[in-house]
Amino acid sequence: MQYDLLIKNGTLIDGSGLPRFQADVGISHGKIAAIGRIRDSAHEVIDAEGHVVAPGFVDAHTHMDAQVFWDPLGTCSCWHGVTSVVMGNCGFSLAPCAEQDKLLVMRNLERAEDIAPEAMEAGIAWSWTTYPEYLDAVEALPKGINYAAYIGHSALRTYVMGERAFTQAASATDLEAMQREVRAAIQAGAIGLSTSRTHNHQTPDGQPVASRLATWDEVRQLVGVMGELNAGVFEIANEDARFDPERIDEYLGRLKALAVDTGVPVTFGMFSSRQAPNMWQPFFSLADETAAAGGRMFIQVHSRPLNVVLSFETATPFDTLPVWCDIRKLPLAAQEAALRNPQTRQKLVEAAHHKPRNPNSGVGAEPRAANFKWLFVMDSATPPYRSIAEIAEERQQGPVEVFIDLALEKGLKQFFLQPLVNQNQDHVLEMMRHPRSVITFSDSGAHVSQIMDSSLQTHVLGHWVREKQALTLEETVRQLSFIPASHWGLSGRGLLREGWNADVVIFDPQTVAPQLPEVVYDLPAGARRLKQQATGFLATVVNGEVVLRHNEHTGALPGQLLRGPRASG
Hints:
Helices cover 31% and strands 20% of the residues. The chain is built from 17 helices and 25 strands. The strands form 5 sheets. Strands 1, 2, 3, 4, 5, 18, 23, 24 and 25 form a 9-stranded mixed beta sheet that branches. Helix 7 runs parallel beside helix 8 (281-292). The longest helix has 18 residues, at 245-262.
């Protein structure tokens, strides 16, 4: 027979965790047709000698709900081996919502997820009201990768309650309407329901996003709809327990009961924190206890610190301080001139020693006040990094002066890293190795000028597998492909198997790695974002078509909307 695409001479790591082996892969009609020593011809042949052939990676924690409307390729995720994503996390979706009410949805997204309303206004052609209509709109879009989507609790509340969603508990009538919408969404193909109860998610005026006004009973009632349908995943941005053991225990008890009583799989993200170094451990014990009690729970983990990426092109820890706030309003060239002026520079240094009124006022991925022992120079895409405090001691200079000098040396394009959580890398490795964890949580599509975690997949491959040799390539590929595809029910994806969908990445294990990010202004309305490419990829195949060669777009857009199990009946 003649295949559409033939990948020859590669080393297959098939996503199962089994040892690698040499084989060819024949692809026809978007499916893997044969694996083995293939002698038949093909319309297109890729010689993968010296490369790993693996299933496409799945990132189950993104916020690409808005971006999918203006970025057909799915950047930056696609550049790091990702072929399928789950969007609508943390209660933030664009539906249900009528166009005349879209400012309510944007209010939830603007600060909490750092998505410029100007970009959303310019980039989204609003054509839906209900969630099923939204899925139809996404399905009709040209797409380079595959998308599954949650219905978000904040959008759901504002759709049913309007402005009251930001101030009130739901009435019985409100709750009945929300349950109807969840049922319709799951039956149309939503992958599940997501919500947020964390103080990190606020509106631009510092108020809670809509889902945070919900009682726990409201959450239980909505998740119960999925239990009745026996379909859907429940994702939650965890409730704040403020490092209080009693509050944590009480919250964990509610989470366990929710998973066991409804039968709905529950998932959330977890990090280590230097403020409370052992707080993450009870959550992993909870997942084991929930499984023993008959429920399902799996935990989303990262592959490195969650870093705010700072620069004079985006944000610094000093932007709200006297003198700094005026300088930072100037064009970049004028800022550089001011920093080189000895008198202005001295004023900036003095002002930086004044503590802000509330040093912990930042939420989410916003910069915090500078702690120079925990402020690092990003001079490469992967660690180790040196702190400003360390360099200041070496140079016998003040840390603020060092920060300014390092920025000037790179024309104000130097990046700095401010880790918010996951500072302890031993904890990160332990979490990645836990049997109930999934390596995901890029937040791709959100925090676009604050963090750059779309590269977490190439980070784990380059840092933890190749440089540290702390994880095997087989177990890592499994964690990036089959494990998330299985947990979120993306059937036919995550493994290289005959008859399965042909989502494939081909990479060089000796060179695969993220590159340094850059600041670009390519969002609608000229809004800025951080952009990060990767090295080491020979090709990325989605649904049988080569979308990227050497991470350059071929023009193909074969991505699909991945609907949940109830969509067909």
